[in-house]
Amino acid sequence: MPVVIDRDRIPTLWAVRTGGCLMSPGSELAVVKLALVNNMPDAALEDTELQFFELLEAAGSEMPIQVELFTLPGLERGDRARQHLAKSYSSTEEILDRRFDGVIITGTEPRQHDLRNEPYWSSLATLLDWAERNTSSSILSCLAAHASVLHGDGIERHPLPDKRFGVFDYQRARNHELLGGVGDLVRFPHSRWNEVRMEELTSCGYSVLTQSPEAGVDIFVKQKRASLFVHLQGHPEYGALTLMKEYRRDIKRFLRKERETYPSMPHGYFDERAAKQLADFRESAVSNVREEMMQIFPEASIASNLRKTWHATAISVYRNWLQLLAARKSDALAFAAIA
């Protein structure tokens, strides 16, 4: 069943994807109501909303899902992004007197080592407190996961020696309803410079669901008041080309001399032929550091062979999450009817 955008504020990319057709979600009691708080930087803002809509649509199957879009105040935005947000989004300040079945909160590009020094920190902390009381479950993605454990339990994130970038294999650490139908091996894309660590999480009551000796913790959960907080250090919503776009962006920053080092190639993402092409390009770019080199970046030949090898697992995890929301809503309605 198509994802329905609340108040007909349908974003442009989703309107193109669906032909602009908005369908009724059906019974008010049956629909799962979600808030998507999209805080991604301008370059990824619209791609991110489309990725989540497509994932929710695939995971929801016949389940009616209604989504309303929000974003944090205090984020730097260009003119195009401000216009897009004005058309389809509300500020999280407008969410605080409302209730949703679930909320998805994305990260954004960090500017400060200590997240508490970010200009949006107060708004994000208020949003996390709201989610504990006004949702049945909350998904915290990447930086939002780090912010959640910092705000709730004082758990600091740790800088990594290099960007954890690519598609990584994780093992199931314990059984959980979110992993129903998921195999013992979980593969998700990651893109981050920091991590939170297993021993610090478990000492504060978090249950780690997937972890890797090589890449650390992936999915971890904790019940916080009324809401099950689901933390994802990875990005199951990513499209097939997302990591390549980010890699290309970081190469361009190097060629513009906005960063000192050439970026590492995404782990477990490119096939052998693509990796050879990109290694050859790197050799040329390092010896001739100027932005014009991007004109020979072998994007077209590489993009055609990229696949979302994590897609089936992402659908399973999100389907389980949506079913959890639907079950908790049903239980709450049954209890209210008895009372």
CATH-assigned fold name of the largest domain:
Rossmann fold
Helical content band:
25-40%
Note the total helix count. Answer: 10
General shape:
globular
Q: SSE order in H/E notation?
A: EHEHEHEEHEHEEHEEEEEHHHH
Strand % is: 15-25%
In total, how many beta strands?
Answer: 13
Largest sheet: 9 strands, mixed
Low-confidence stretches: none
* Class from helix and strand fractions: alpha/beta
Query: Based on the structure, what is the oligomeric state of the protein chains?
Result: single chain
Distance between the termini: 33 Å
Any idea what the CATH architecture of the largest domain is?
3-Layer(aba) Sandwich
Q: Looking at this structure, what is the CATH superfamily of the largest domain?
A: Class I glutamine amidotransferase (GATase) domain
The tally of domains stands at 2
Give the C-level CATH assignment of the largest domain. Alpha Beta
Return the average pLDDT rounded to an integer.
Answer: 93
- Gyration radius over CA: 20 Å
Description:
- With 339 residues, the protein is α/β, with parallel strands linked by helices.
- It has 2 domains: 4-239 and 309-338, Class I glutamine amidotransferase (GATase) domain (Rossmann fold); 242-303, no CATH class.
- It has 10 helices and 13 strands.
- It has helices at 12-18, 42-60, 79-88, 121-134, 143-153, 198-203, 242-255, 272-286, 299-303, 311-338, and strands at 4-5, 32-37, 65-71, 90-91, 102-105, 137-141, 158-172, 185-195, 207-208, 210-212, 216-217, 219-224, 227-232.
- Helix 2 (42-60) packs across helix 10.
- It is globular.
